[in-house]
C-alpha cells in the first residue's frame, strides 16, 4: 500500500507485440513445464518481463512456461518458494536487486545465498533528468550548482532502499558535493516532485519517464550506464561526463543451488538465442532495457560484486 | 464536438458495454469480499484484458475500480466489516442503521449516493481536467504533511466523548504505522528481524480486526441470544427525491471532498471518506445522531469514495503517474496495449480518452443496476441464522486477507487486532482514531521529515507554504472546536453530578 | 471499571516506555535527515506516556469528585462481573478457533481447515451438532474454496493432499 509505483508495472507495453518466432527446439529440456516465480503482482514490471520471456523463449527451448506471482515480504516468499521447489529445473525466480536488498536488510528464512544465478538478461538504465526549461545542461552543471550552494540542490529519487537513491549518495561522495536526496513512496511520486519544482533534478528508469519525455516536459542529462542508451536521443553517460558511476539494475533469473548442468546449459543457449530474436529485441529496446546477457559464471561474479558494493553502501550509511 | 461522438461510439460498442458490465460486477464482488482491495480485484482480471481492444480493456479496469469502491460498503453496513479501506468510515453509521433494522435503507443510500457522486465526479473529470491536474502539482511535502494533520485532527471530533482516550488510540494507530521500513533512510523499525513486517502493516488488517473480528467476539460474549437484530432487516429501500434533497448537504460535502482528494496522489478514498464524514457531522443539524445510525454518516463517506473513482484518474491520464495501487494497475493495463498516458494522451488518442469517459458513465449506470440486483441476495444472506452467519463472516475475514501478501502471518495480525478491538470496546476506547492513526501515520512522518530535509531543519516552511498554512489552520479549527465542546461536556457532566 | 481503567493506564504507560526503548535502539543512519528514524517514534512514545498518566489522573479525579455512589449493590456487581467474564471467555473462544484454523491451514489445506472452522464456529455459536452442521461445514468449505481459490485465484495453502497424489 505504502510503496506503490509505476516502476513495478512498467515493461508491460510488450504484450501487445504478440508473435513467437518458430525456431527449432534445442536439446531436450528435462521437464515440460517450467514455473517462473515473481514477487511482483500481475502487470508488474517483472511479471510482464517473465511473460514476455515465456512467449518468446517457449518455442526456442521447447518448454511451456507458467508465470506465478508470489507476492509479499519484498521477495522473501518468492525466494522460499523456489528453494522449496523441485531441483530439476522446473522452477525459477525472476530476480532484480530487490531480493538482495531484502536479504541484507531483514533476515528472511531463505536469502539470495540459498539461490544461484542462472542467466542475466538486462540492465535497466538509471537516468538523471531535469525539467525541459532547467538551467542545467550537463551533469557538471548540477555539480557546479551544488558546489556553489551546498544543500541547495534537491534530487528526487524513488524509495529509500532503491538503487537510484544509492547512486545519488555515491554521487555526492564522488563529486565532493552536498545535495538533498529526497526519497519518495515510488518512482511516480519522484517524477511529480521534479515536475512541481520541489526537486531540481531526478533519477529514474526510462520507462517511467516515457510519457514526460514524449511530451518534451523533461530532458535526460546522463545515464549511469557503460554505453550510451539508444532511443532517448544521444545522451552521454555519466562516465563520459567525468563522473565514474555505473549502476547495474539487473534483471535475471535465479534458481536453486546445484541444478543439473544440462538445465543450465539449456538456459544459457536458449537465452543467448532469445536476445538476438528480432521481435524480442524490438520489445526490450522500446522499453529502454539494455542487453546485459550473462552466462551463469558471469552472472555469479556480477552478483557477488553487486552484493559487496551494496553491503559497503549499507555499512557506510549505517543502514540495518 | 468530436469528444461527444467518441463517447457515443464507445457506449454503443458491444465489447465496451460488456467490459463495463463485467468489470463492475467483478468489482462489486471483489470489493464486498474483505481483504480483496480494488487493486487486487483489478490485477486479477488484468491478464484477461490483454486480448481486448484497448478501450474495452481500460473501461473494464475502471469498471472494476468503481464497482469495488462501492462494493466495500455492503459488508461495512451489513456485517460491520469494511470490504475496502475507504469503506471504514461507513461502518460506524451504516452498521448502526443495520442494527436498528434499517440496513436496507443504508444500502440504498450508499448505492444512490455513490452513483450520484460518481456521475458528478465524471462531469468534473471531463470539464475540469486541467485545474484538477494542477492541484496534484500543488502538493509538495509540507502540504501533504498539513493535509495528513488535518485528517488526524478529525480524531478530536470523533472521540465519542473522551478526548484522552481518543488521543491514546490515535497515538497507538500512529505507532502501528511506524512498523516497517523507515520512509527516509530505509532502516527497518519494529520488525523484530522478520521479513513479514518489512512492508508495514496493511490498513485493512487492522480494520478487519477491530471492526469485524471484535464484533464477532462481542456477539459471542452476548451468548445464545436467538433474537438477532438481523431478523428485522427491512428490504432494500432506495431513497426518494425528497430524502436525497434532505441529505443534499452530506451528499455535496462527500462529493466535493472526494473530487478534490482524488487527484492528490497518496491521499485517496480513505482520507476523503473520513474527512467528509467529519465535515458532514459538523454541518449536520443533528450531529448527535452520528455514530447512532445517522443517514448522513453513510451518504457522505460513500459519496466521497465514489467521487474519488473519477477524479483519481486525472494524474494517471495527464501525467502518467498513478496516485494509488489501483491506478498503478490501470497504468499497467494501458501500457500493455502500447498506450503511454501522459501530457500527450489527449491529443494523440482522443478516441480513447473520450471513449473512457463514455465507459465511466456506463460503469456508474451498471453499478446502480447491479447494486439493485445484488442487494436483495446480500440482505437474504445476512438474515441466515446467527451460527451460520458468524461462522461465514469469520471465514470470509480469514480468507481474503491472504490475497495481499500470501502470508499466514497476516492472519495473526487480523486476529490480534480483533482482540485489541474487543478490549477497546469493553473499555470504551473509540475505534476511529486508531484507524486514522494507522492510515495517516506514514504520510505524516514521511512528509514532515521530507519537508525538514528540504529546508535544512527549518519549521518555518509549514507556515510559509500557503497550502500548508491553510490546511494547518483548518486542523487547528477542528481541534479547537472539539476541545471547546469537550470542556462544555465535562462542565455539564460535573454540574449534573453535583446537583 | 475505574480500577480496570487504572490498570489499562499502567499498561499503556508500560507500552509507551517499551516502545520508546525499542525506538531508541533503532540504528542511526546518516541518510535519515534532520529527524532520525527514531525521532517520530520517540515523540509518540512520550505522548503515549503523558496521555496514559492523564488518563490515570482523570480517572482518579473523577472517583474523587464522584465518590463511589452507593456501596450497597456490591454483590450484584460481583455477579455481573462473573457473568461478564464468562462472556469474555466465550469471546476469546472464537479467537482460539481462529488460532487453531491458522495453525492447521498449512497442513490440512484451505478447503478442509475452512470446513472444520465453519463447523466449529457454527457449533460454538449455538448450533446443535447435527447433520445440518456437517452439511454446512462440507458445503461451506467447498464453496469458500471455489470462490477464493478457483474464482479469485488466491493461492491459499493446499495442505498435504497434493503430496498424496504423487
From TrEMBL, chain B:
Keyword Kinase: no
Membrane-spanning intervals of the chain: 6-29, 41-68, 107-129, 135-156, 163-180, 192-214, 352-382, 388-414, 426-444, 467-485
Entry keyword Membrane: yes
Chain ranges of the DUF112 domain: 17-436
A matching Pfam family: TctA
Keywords assigned: Membrane, Transmembrane, Transmembrane helix
Protein name, entry field: Tripartite tricarboxylate transporter permease
Origin species: Albidovulum sediminis
TrEMBL record, chain C:
Keyword Transcription regulation: no
Keyword DNA damage carried by entry: no
Keywords annotated in UniProt: Membrane, Transmembrane, Transmembrane helix
Pfam families the record matches: TctB (PF07331)
Superkingdom as given in the UniProt entry: Bacteria
Segments passing through the bilayer: 47-66, 87-104, 134-156
Domain annotation DUF1468: ranges: 7-157
Protein name: Tripartite tricarboxylate transporter TctB family protein
Species for this entry: Albidovulum sediminis
